[in-house]
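Hey,
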Amino acid sequence: MIKKIGFLMGIFLFGILSAQKKEQLQKQNAELKKQIAAINSNLAKTQQQSKLSIAYLNEVNKKIQLREKVYSNTQKEKKLIEDDIYLRQLEINRQNRELAVLRKNYAEVLVKAYKNKGVQNKVTFILSSKNLGEALRRVQYLKDYADYQDKKAAEISGAAEKLKQSIALRQKSVKDKETILTNQQKDLLTIEAERKQKESLLEEFKKNEVQLTAELKQKQAESKKLEGQIRAIIAEEIRIAKANEEARKKEEAEKIRLAKIAAEKEKAKIEAENKARLEALALEKKKADEEAKRLKDIADRKAADEAEKARLAAAADAKKTEDARRAADAEKAEARRLTAAKEAADAAALAKAAANKAAAAGAAQANLAKKNEDEKKAAETKVMTNFGVNSAVGSNFAANKGRMSMPVSGEITHRFGRQPHPVFKNIVEENNGIKIAVTKGTVAKCIAPGTVSRVVASGDGSKTVIVKHGDYFSIYANLASTMVSANQNVAAGTSIGTVAEDYDSTYTLDFQIWYGSNPVDPLGWVN
């Protein structure tokens, strides 16, 4: 029983995993067939052009590789189906054995039932019971026996139905395998035809090897000539940039010198103006201090005089009873005392006011000194700005490495660096950039903001646009026409020009990126 359950679980799990893998393979094949259809569409568009091109050969190679991938996936799917057929057959064999056992057991039950058939036998079996309890048990037994017969019949029907389903599933898998085999035959025929097409293309290349090699070498010579022009232009740009930078630095230094002189003059002017104010405030403070001291001395003297007069008044008052004549003098002395007291109070108030005025003058002097420094700093900043002394903003080309868009959409036929020719093994190409095969009428776009350095016309009639991005240059070669001019500022996405027809009748953009006087791989910069 445990083995049976384990076997069934194994088949169930295998069925689930197999279905998932088949579904995944079928999705992959559907996507691969879409890619093949796209390639066929591209090849159909270029069928009027010469087929003796690397782009055309690359497309054919790519299509063959995709078809081989489809065939490989189909092989895997076929293997899964064969495994499924094998396991289904094992399950059918097991179900057949189980059904045979059930039928045998059921036949034995039917034979026994036949031997004991008839209502009379059943009645006799019940009536021959010794008592009522035994009779009831015999009735229940007959009922259970009839139910058992029905259950066995149902088991046989169920097992037969399962066997039928298993056979149907196996037949479906067999049909799926037949369909896959048919498709595989078609795929093999198609792959063989496309391989013959590739061989035919290679034969055509070989037949035209002399002509194509000559054209290719001529193109390489033109590319070398263009490279020399590009190097000369970039070297000149670098020389001009260095000269401009030196001139800018000198101009900046002169601006700073003149600005400093002007700033010193402005600060001296402010210093002179504020110096007079400071001297006036200092003089005013000195006068206030002297007035405060004078008034304090007067107040001190009057206070002493009041004390003396008070003493005399007290003495006169003491003698008032003795000398009536001195009474009038005492009254006068008292009056003089009161007057002296008032004068002393007034003098003290004046002294306090003078002290406050002196403190205010000191605060004003400090505020004026701070204002003087602030005004001098502001004047210096203003003069520097007026003289154009500021910092330059650098290029953000390097900061966008890997995030810039391709100049065109197409198939990369030649990569950066030293590469062997895909057909003519005796020829090695030295590429300063990448070559991208496109459809007729494709317009190349600028990859980043910059300034058009030069538009160069080549000997074969094509044009090259060089765009400067700070220390970097992007180059768009093999253009039939251009849409920009020298010294024009351009943004990312600006139309540069229409891609021209190449020597092999394809339309190919030669795209390069240079850092100073060194070319770099564009695929490390564009996304």
